Amino acid sequence: MDAELLTTLFGGDRSWSSPCVVILDGEATVKTPGPDTIVSGGMKSYAPRYSTGRIEADTCCLLRAQGALLIVQQLPYKDSTGQTAVKQTLTIVDTRHIIGVEFPHLKALDILGIPLPLMAEGHEYRPGTLVG
């Protein structure tokens, strides 16, 4: 991605951004589509794993001069006593390997100076659609 575009999206040099998904050109993380389970007989059934270039970030910080993006993830988990704890992970990414950024909102359009699209709200059905 273009360095200027990344600077605009992430709020300039050395400032933290809102949550987003950073898409890389490599397989950066391993995901599971569901939980691991224990089946009959006490055997554990593992959910399939797949590699992806998508990193879900709680916040990011662009280091423009160094060509790096700091990605922070907070992952809640339960320890063996049942207490919830938070694991924080810092990933440092070379900006030359970023191929996309996904935001869970449309505020990025406002940051880029692009007006919001006119979209119908709610569920509208097209003519001829069978609704059951």
What would your notes on this structure say?
- The chain is mostly beta strands and 132 residues long.
- Helix content is 9%, strand content 39%.
- It has two helices and ten strands, in the order αββββββββββα.
- Strands 6-1-10 form a three-stranded antiparallel β-sheet, with no helix packed on it.
- It is extended, with a radius of gyration of 20 Å.
Largest sheet: 3 strands, antiparallel
Terminus-to-terminus distance: 44 Å
Please estimate the helix content: under 10%
Strand order of the largest sheet: 6-1-10
Q: Work out the radius of gyration.
A: 20 Å
Order of helices and strands: HEEEEEEEEEEH
Number of helices: 2
Beta percentage is: 35-45%
Uncertain regions spanning at least 5 consecutive residues: none
* Large-scale geometry: extended
Mean pLDDT: 83
Task: Report the strand count.
Answer: 10
Helix-and-strand structural type = mainly beta
